[in-house]
Design a protein that fits this description.
By secondary structure, the protein is of the alpha/beta class. It contains ten helices and six strands; from the N terminus they run E-H-H-E-E-E-H-H-H-H-E-E-H-H-H-H. This is Recep_L_domain domain-containing protein.
């Protein structure tokens, strides 16, 4: 993190000409087939663009270095941007979390990079979205576990992202080609945005639809009515048999033919 304007940091990114929304810091997509990523982006292009600007950013890097202490966060210049132009205030608990918890560090780091990429005044509550992909995890972690973190300014859209985040992370752990992982990431995010706008930001209702409940009640009413008719017919025949007027023929009642 540096203190230059939120546009100048993009000069350090390696971008594929057809994928200007991708910042590939270590050229990990170089010489790979990115047609799938391009196709996924254009599939949802209307949702990924605002005028001439992209509302999606994907940053790919090998590793990030987590600060060793709270003192580093407070005094080292590379972390100074944590305290500049926040949409929300950084507090002591967040600083402690940055040092002691990798996921908390990545959450706050992606949030700050999001602000600097899109600009604070334009992005605090917008549906812009930044994906941070760490292929080899965090420095000094011998496990080299990959991490993926998605951040957006919209709280409602944010609720749709954890599943995408986990799926992309699992794909990296399983050794999928990076280009395929980014393709699926872009496609999943595009679908989430489509659903977000179709439902006006409301969560999808997974309960039984009203028409299905009404149909069930109608079927239940028909079954009850048929049973009542059956009961009435059988009772009447039994009464006739007892009176000695006629003999009831053996076999099923005619109401069974209704079904």
């Amino acid at each position: 993190m540096h203190e230059e304007s939120h546009y100048s940091h993009r000069s350090v990114c390696y971008t594929v000409p057809r994928l200007p929304f991708v910042c590939d810091l270590h050229h990990q997509l170089a010489y790979t087939n990115v047609h799938g990523i391009e196709k996924a982006y254009h599939k949802y292009r209307s949702l990924f663009t605002n005028g001439n600007s992209s509302t999606l950013a994907v940053i790919i890097t090998k590793q990030l270095e987590q600060p060793a202490s709270a003192n580093d966060v407070m005094k080292k210049s590379e972390y100074a941007c944590l305290f500049d132009n926040e949409c929300d205030q950084i507090d002591g608990d967040m600083i402690t979390g940055i040092v002691g918890n990798v996921r908390k560090f990545l959450k706050i780091y992606s949030w700050k990079v999001y602000e600097r990429w899109f600009g604070v005044s334009e992005s605090c509550s917008k549906t812009n979205l930044l994906a941070l992909v760490l292929v080899d995890g965090v420095v000094n972690d011998a496990r080299k576990i990959p991490y993926v973190r998605l951040h957006t300014g919209s709280p409602r859209l944010r609720a749709l992202l954890p599943n995408i985040q986990n799926e992309v992370n699992n794909a990296l752990v399983q050794g999928w080609p990076l280009a395929k992982v980014i393709e699926d990431l872009v496609d999943d995010v595009g679908y989430a945005l489509k659903e977000y706008y179709e439902l006006n930001g409301e969560p999808r209702d997974h309960s039984v639809p009203l028409w299905a409940r009404n149909l069930f009640l109608i079927c239940l009413a028909l079954v009850v009515a048929a049973l009542l008719v059956e009961w009435y017919v059988v009772r009447r025949k039994i009464g006739v048999q007892k009176s000695g007027s006629i003999k009831i023929a053996s076999g099923k009642s005619k109401t069974h033919l209704m079904f």
